Amino acid sequence: MSEQKLTHLDAQGRAQMVDVSEKPATARRAVAEARVLMQPETLALIESGGAAKGDVLGVARLAGIMAAKRTADLIPLCHPLPLSKVTLDLACDPELGGVLITAECRTTGPTGVEMEALTAASVAALTVYDMCKAVDRGMRITEVRLRHKSGGKSGTFEAE
Length: 160
What we know:
five-stranded antiparallel beta sheet, alpha+beta
């Protein structure tokens, strides 16, 4: 890990929003993922469309997109960004024992979209939990992580 100074602190050590006005606008992309682990019966219920609250994956997809657009309202000091694209893929994976969520966010701007992608994946996972908790309170949201980031001064990041 490189030694980088935290940039959300002013000269007095107080939290501040970083000034990105001098940074060039570049195409930026981030991909994040989350997993929701559950009982096989719960996964089968989601796959069959038989959940009492309706289309779990469809609602979670919409919730993730909406959350990405509201990231600056949720994460302190996060810049509001004009997102040009937000996609969420939710897949039932019996080998995983749950739902794999992949969120992709794009923008052209002076700062990255990592937080938007992570927020989208997290809120989609929370929505899956919320819609299925009546039948499986033991579900676990795991491995919320950044998988890819590109654009900007720091270059490309690919998770292992």
